[in-house]
């Protein structure tokens, strides 16, 4: 009997495409890794499955157990999908101001949502998750401290970029939230070529960009190693939203705000460089932001 894949086999191997218009006349090539093409719609599909599968392999969890995670959106949706695939009950804790599409997607996959206030934010969500685990209410996977988060990117995202560019990539651009993507890709790409520059993005003061954080020191993800990032660029919310809309209207790439930030950084780099191959991560799809009004005409 012929063997067919399950949905988890569809995670990864996402397209890498070239910007056509937004970069203008240049000797550089700007390439975008379309992580919205993953089954649950974001780059977080990779670490979500990785964290569950590796924990199973170590005997830390088994199907039927309850998992707990603090999330601002994409990881929660990805974990909800992975939990549905592998047979877990999932409790997700998130700030109340996240978009309705994100909340509904998590619920559709069967997750139970617990909201904290916007003022409590992700810090409050993380604190509550750990308190619930201490009370025996479930197992926290903890994307912020779990080595299986960057490991997913070291084993999949980084190698895909290297293969898809034929080893010609010179600069890698990624938003920094949990920092799993940039840590894992940096580890792999630097091993292949130490001259590749790794550029991380954080929101400038006063900007609020879903998926990108400027963490208070006490909450800085423990998986983060500053030595793996060659340069940190501050990105404004206004620029990120503007380039997100341009990507849809001028390139046919429908993505979220953090992806607009990634392209903002890639275009800045392109102005400084010659004959570079710049790869930027497009974290997710734009449809999960429609209710926020960011795609509305000015």
UniProtKB/TrEMBL annotation:
Binding site for pyridoxal 5'-phosphate: 74, 177-181, 258
Similarity-based family: Belongs to the cysteine synthase/cystathionine beta-synthase family.
The organism's taxonomic lineage, starting at the top: Bacteria, Pseudomonadati, Pseudomonadota, Gammaproteobacteria, Cellvibrionales
GO molecular function, one term: cysteine synthase activity
Pfam family, one: PALP
Organism in which the protein naturally occurs: Pseudohalioglobus lutimaris
The entry's keywords: Amino-acid biosynthesis, Cysteine biosynthesis, Pyridoxal phosphate, Transferase
RNA-binding recorded as keyword: no
Modification N6-(pyridoxal phosphate)lysine, positions: 44
EC number, UniProt record: 2.5.1.47
EC main group: transferase
Domain of life of the source: Bacteria
Pathway noted in the entry: Amino-acid biosynthesis; L-cysteine biosynthesis; L-cysteine from L-serine: step 2/2
Cofactor(s) named in the record: pyridoxal 5'-phosphate
Record-given protein name: Cysteine synthase
Catalysis performed (reactions): O-acetyl-L-serine + hydrogen sulfide = L-cysteine + acetate
Record-annotated Tryptophan synthase beta chain-like PALP domain positions: 9-284
Gene Ontology terms: biological process: cysteine biosynthetic process from serine
